[in-house]
Amino acid sequence: MIEFRHLRTLLALRDTGSLVEAAERVHLTQSALSHQLKDLEERLGCPLFLRKTRPVQFTRAGQRLLGLAEQILPQIRNAERDIARMAGGEQGRLHMAIECHSCFQWLMPTIDHFRDHWPEVEVDIPAGQHFDPLPALAREQLDLVITADPQPLPRIHYEPLFRYESLLAVARQHALADKRYVMPKDLEDQILITYPVEHSKLDVFTRFLEPAGVHPRETRTAELTMMMMQLVASERGVCALPNWALTEYLERDYVRACSLGRDGVWGTLYAAVRLDQMSQVWMSDFLRTARETSFAVLNGIRPAG
């Protein structure tokens, strides 16, 4: 009566707290997910969770199945890895570059988890790179690039990991601090702090300011997110960062955040991989691990379509 898909659905429901977000997580419509859960409850003869509660509250039967899911699903995943090794797909090289200054929050746990299960794969993030990562990937100098700026290159596949919202961080006492969202003109008289990358790679410019023909009064750069937050908190500028990068500072009430525009600016983070590498079992497992780890450690992200 109980299938693996049921266990994955229940975990998604617990982790997200709502039917809508759980449906996105397991790539189903809300109607299909509701039907799946209702069918399971009819098979078992008892409810698994209380409807119209947020976050979702599970019954004793639902909690029993959650415990089963936490026990069984990792064993299934490990068995799949073991069988892949038996098939001879355990060795390889995974040299990667990151076009994302704030990605280490989820990438490091991903790499640690991956190394534990694929010790034969050589994992490295080369330091002191003096080349463009995506062309280097095409030349086989790299094996994977984390990027939010996909470019059409031959033999390169962009695997979507998750969607995120860019938010504007401002000081608590800033004039914009109480706004739910800002418009481009609100930044005309502001100092905009960014990472030291080209403006063409920053959503705040390409998808918010430039389409409106607006330029900030001044721009300055900072290497570290922590330094950017200190500058923002001391009213020496504002900055736009992915929502997950701001979570800890918002929880501590260190800064405030506004959406960029009424609907917000949402981007997608990708893992760029050569097509010939996609058939490697360990590469598929790394991408899956990256996606699962992201949703486990980051707040505010959404599944990529």
From TrEMBL:
Keywords attached to this entry: Activator, Amino-acid biosynthesis, Cytoplasm, DNA-binding, Methionine biosynthesis, Repressor, Transcription, Transcription regulation
GO molecular function terms listed in the Swiss-Prot or TrEMBL record: DNA-binding transcription factor activity; transcription cis-regulatory region binding
GO biological process: methionine biosynthetic process
Localization of this protein: Cytoplasm
GO cellular component: cytoplasm
PROSITE patterns according to UniProt: HTH_LYSR
Ranges for domain HTH lysR-type: 2-59
Family designation: Belongs to the LysR transcriptional regulatory family.
PANTHER family to which the protein is assigned, alphabetical: HTH-TYPE TRANSCRIPTIONAL REGULATOR, HTH-TYPE TRANSCRIPTIONAL REGULATOR METR
Name under which the protein is recorded: HTH-type transcriptional regulator MetR
Source organism (scientific name): Kushneria avicenniae
Lineage, top ranks: Bacteria, Pseudomonadati, Pseudomonadota, Gammaproteobacteria, Oceanospirillales
